[in-house]
Structures are given as C-alpha cells and as structure tokens.
C-alpha cells in the first residue's frame, strides 16, 4: 500500500512531467481546486482547472527563455493520513542548459475523495 509520503511525491513527479511537456490539462489534474499560490507578495486563488494552465506559466516565463524545470530536492517535513507538507526546491533551465534560477517552496499535498493533489504552494519563484 502506498504511504501518504509516496503518494505526495508521485503527484509532484506527475506535475513536473506535465509542466515540461507543456500539458496544461495534465498539470491541472495534479491540483485540487480551489488551488492557492503564495508568491511575489500576493496570493493567487485558482477556483478551477480552467483558471490555471500552462498558458499562464508560459506567459510568465517566456522572457527568461524557460525550456524545462527539474526538482533539486523534495523533503517531506510533515505527513499525516490525508496531508503532506513538502520543502522543495526546483530549478528552471533554458534550452541551452543554462540556469534561470533555483527556487525554494513549500507544497501542500492533500487527499480528497481518495485522490491526492496539490492544494497550495508558497514559493519564492516569481
């Protein structure tokens, strides 16, 4: 049987894969909605999957030349039967492999109605 920690890490793997494939629908499928993102001095609330997608991310990162992202680390800091808090860091890369930046974040992954998904993120990424 999969532990909450394993389930949460699997959701993060699926998210990163979808992001790098530029698949907004698959990204949205890794979230619970409403979804909350704390970053850049504000809180964004995405009521539905239609409100969050790759297009929004693409617009925000186009000027940097973003090509892909990768996890640097993912550390479970708290875990319960239906919620896992993760201390993570990811790096954004350009197509030539140069680094755009590395960003620390707190991700909260929860199980609702038997499905694990990201409910909230607090990030130092722009």
What does this 3D model show about the protein?
There is one protein chain. The chain has a single domain, classed as Nuclear Transport Factor 2, Chain: A. A hairpin with a 2-residue loop joins β5 (99-112) and β6. A 6-stranded mixed beta sheet has the order 2-1-6-5-4-3. It has helices at 4-20, 24-28, 54-61; strands spanning 31-39, 42-46, 66-79, 83-94, 99-112, 115-123. Helices cover 24% and strands 50% of the residues. The protein is α+β, with helices and mostly antiparallel strands.
Give a brief outline of the structure.
By secondary structure, this protein is of the alpha+beta class. It is built from 3 helices and 6 strands, in the order ααββαββββ.
Label this structure with key terms.
126 residues; alpha+beta; 24% helix; 6-stranded mixed beta sheet; Nuclear Transport Factor 2, Chain: A
């Amino acid at each position: 049987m999969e532990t909450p920690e394993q389930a949460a890490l699997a959701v993060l793997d699926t998210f990163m894969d979808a992001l790098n494939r530029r698949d907004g629908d698959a990204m949205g499928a890794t979230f619970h909605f409403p979804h909350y993102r704390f970053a850049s001095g504000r809180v964004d609330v995405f009521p539905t999957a239609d409100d969050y997608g790759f297009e929004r991310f693409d617009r925000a990162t186009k000027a940097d030349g973003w090509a892909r992202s990768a996890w640097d680390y993912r550390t479970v800091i708290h875990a319960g039967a239906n919620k896992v808090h993760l201390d993570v860091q990811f790096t954004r890369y350009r197509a030539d492999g140069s680094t755009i930046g590395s960003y620390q974040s707190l991700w909260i992954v929860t199980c609702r109605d038997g499905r694990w998904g990201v409910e909230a993120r607090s990030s130092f990424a722009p």
